[in-house]
């Protein structure tokens, strides 16, 4: 209990809320890496997932990729990339690792979203004379969006927790509190860092959960509501 | 006018033909019903008209022009298509679903909307329901919207793939009579598919009875088929031997009652024209 009280005291100490290693600065840095990685991963994985869902080709490739990515040791990869790219590019190395981590769940969400659309709906979109692109943008993407955002949610949790490893190579973020705390034997600071990361993850997840709900088209929400549970 | 000329479709080289050497002419402004049990290739035949399926051999002509030479997207925009389970887009309202067709044909939003409302009225959908989503409509109402969407195509051909198969019998009857009324007004060239002989006889000016592989067992008016089934398959399919198809007149107190083979009275015989 003492440790929690200490962590709380640390969190509420005004001294920890200012300066280059203050809570706002490091939280912002943590959030910046997370969002940058998610945006880049979406830019790659969403179109790729849509292509797989739209054409029905490449699903086994996506599954294999997701499996491979899960086996990827993030810290090892980060160290390797820093060695290859050079210490001057350690920010780039960090973002690359985070993007690779975020791609599989977003890819799966993008194609699962299209996969889950009833065949009759897609068939009729084709039957009224929509082109492939029109079907993609007017039917598949809007109806698949909630599942895509589900994938982004999953990715965001992984990315938020993995950003911390960048503190090992000297990039300040909330992980810095854990590493510095461990070196100094300052367990209150370590716990405070962990609490901050967890809180950030929960906030991000909450925001994305709301986005996911809003992404369900009105007509579809009514269909779900109409079906008795 | 729709013409099938020696059309064959194989989905894979290993399997047998889904449709084997099928020919048919659907004259302009008439309703032809293809009727057969599942697996007879009727849906395949229908979908060849708007190139949802391409034949392996043979040709399908629309007003004399081979559809194989037409761009599939442009072709589908000009041919009305009504599907079982409506196939409406769940994220668009009834009016928007119908308006998709004129919008794709290049109409502006306002023109598409007014055309859509006009068609929804034609198919007998309560105007208050126009801005509801499919999930808020009953099965019968959804099918009405589906028919309105089919009618929104600017060409005169309307393809209907078991459009009333999934609604309850009472609503089905209503929809069938609405279709007859609409057809009297619009005289579209309709190719209709069903597995229900009663529906085929009610709606079709010509009925084509199919067995496996799109093989034509008999074609003709409903009266022709019922009067002289071409073979045992047709007789069994249309239920020519069924006792409720064998009607006779029973005179009672000077009134001529029509009764079926189970002695159920069906109506009264009169000399008045309907």
TrEMBL record, chain A:
Intracellular or extracellular location(s): Cell membrane; Membrane
Alphabetic keyword roster: Membrane, Transmembrane, Transmembrane helix, Transport
Predominant location: membrane
Membrane topology summary: Multi-pass membrane protein
GO cellular component, one term: plasma membrane
Keyword Membrane attached: yes
PANTHER family: GLYCINE BETAINE/L-PROLINE TRANSPORT SYSTEM PERMEASE PROTEIN PROW (PTHR30177), POSSIBLE OSMOPROTECTANT (GLYCINE BETAINE_CARNITINE_CHOLINE_L-PROLINE) TRANSPORT INTEGRAL MEMBRANE PROTEIN ABC TRANSPORTER PROZ (PTHR30177:SF33)
Family statement: Belongs to the binding-protein-dependent transport system permease family.
Name of the protein described by the UniProt record: ABC transporter permease subunit
Organism (species): Miniimonas arenae
From TrEMBL, chain B:
MF terms (GO), sorted A to Z: ABC-type quaternary ammonium compound transporting activity; ATP binding; ATP hydrolysis activity
Source organism superkingdom: Bacteria
Domain ABC transporter: 2-238
Pfam families, sorted: ABC_tran
EC number(s) reported in the record: 7.6.2.9
Record key words, sorted: ATP-binding, Nucleotide-binding, Transport
InterPro entries: AAA+_ATPase (IPR003593), ABC_transporter-like_ATP-bd (IPR003439), ABC_transporter-like_CS (IPR017871), P-loop_NTPase (IPR027417)
Assigned protein family: Belongs to the ABC transporter superfamily.
PANTHER family assigned: OSMOPROTECTANT IMPORT ATP-BINDING PROTEIN OSMV
Protein name as it appears in the record: ABC-type quaternary amine transporter
Protein source organism: Miniimonas arenae
């Amino acid at each position: 209990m003492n440790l929690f009280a200490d962590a709380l005291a640390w969190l509420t100490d005004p001294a920890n809320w200012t300066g280059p290693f203050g809570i706002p600065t490091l939280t912002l840095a943590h959030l910046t890496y997370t969002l940058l990685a998610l945006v880049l991963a979406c830019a790659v994985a969403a179109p790729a997932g849509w292509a797989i869902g739209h054409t029905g080709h490449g699903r086994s490739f996506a599954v294999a990729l997701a499996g491979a990515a899960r086996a990827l040791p993030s810290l090892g990869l980060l160290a390797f990339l820093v060695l290859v790219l050079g210490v001057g590019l350690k920010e780039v190395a960090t973002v690359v690792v985070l993007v690779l981590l975020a791609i599989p769940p977003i890819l799966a969400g993008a194609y699962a979203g299209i996969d889950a659309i009833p065949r009759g709906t897609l068939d009729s979109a084709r039957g009224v004379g929509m082109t492939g692109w029109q079907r993609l943008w007017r039917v598949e993407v809007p109806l698949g969006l909630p599942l895509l955002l589900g994938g982004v949610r999953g990715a965001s949790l992984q990315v938020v927790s993995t950003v911390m490893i960048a503190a090992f190579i000297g990039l300040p973020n909330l992980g810095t509190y854990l590493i510095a705390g461990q070196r100094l034997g300052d367990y209150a600071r370590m716990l405070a860092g962990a609490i901050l990361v967890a809180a950030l993850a929960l906030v991000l997840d909450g925001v994305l959960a709301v986005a996911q709900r809003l992404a369900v088209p009105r007509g579809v929400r009514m269909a779900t509501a109409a079906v008795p549970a | 006018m729709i013409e099938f000329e020696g059309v064959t479709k194989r989905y894979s080289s290993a399997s047998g033909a889904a449709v084997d050497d099928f020919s048919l002419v659907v004259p302009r402004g008439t309703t032809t019903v293809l009727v057969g049990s599942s697996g007879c290739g009727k849906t395949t035949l229908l979908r060849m008209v708007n190139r949802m399926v391409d034949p392996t051999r043979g040709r399908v002509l629309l007003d004399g022009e081979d559809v194989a030479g037409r761009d599939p997207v442009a072709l589908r925009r000009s041919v009305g298509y009504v599907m079982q389970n409506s196939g409406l887009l769940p994220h668009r309202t009834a009016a928007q679903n119908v308006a998709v067709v004129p919008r794709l044909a290049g109409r502006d939003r306002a023109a598409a909307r007014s055309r859509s409302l006009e068609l929804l009225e034609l198919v007998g959908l309560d105007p208050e329901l126009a801005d509801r989503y499919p999930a808020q409509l009953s099965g019968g109402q959804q099918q009405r919207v589906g028919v309105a969407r089919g009618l929104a195509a600017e060409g005169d051909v309307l393809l209907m793939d078991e459009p009333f198969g999934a609604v309850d019998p009472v609503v089905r009857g209503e929809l069938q009579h609405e279709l007859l009324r609409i057809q009297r007004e619009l005289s579209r060239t309709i190719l209709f598919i069903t597995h229900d002989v009663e529906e085929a006889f009610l709606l079709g000016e010509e009925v084509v009875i199919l067995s496996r592989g799109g093989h034509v067992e008999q074609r003709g008016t409903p009266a022709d088929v019922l009067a002289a089934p071409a073979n045992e398959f047709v007789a069994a399919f249309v239920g020519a031997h069924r006792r409720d198809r064998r009607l006779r007149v029973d005179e009672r107190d000077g009134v001529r009652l029509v009764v079926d083979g189970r002695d159920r009275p069906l109506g009264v015989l009169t000399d008045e024209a309907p």
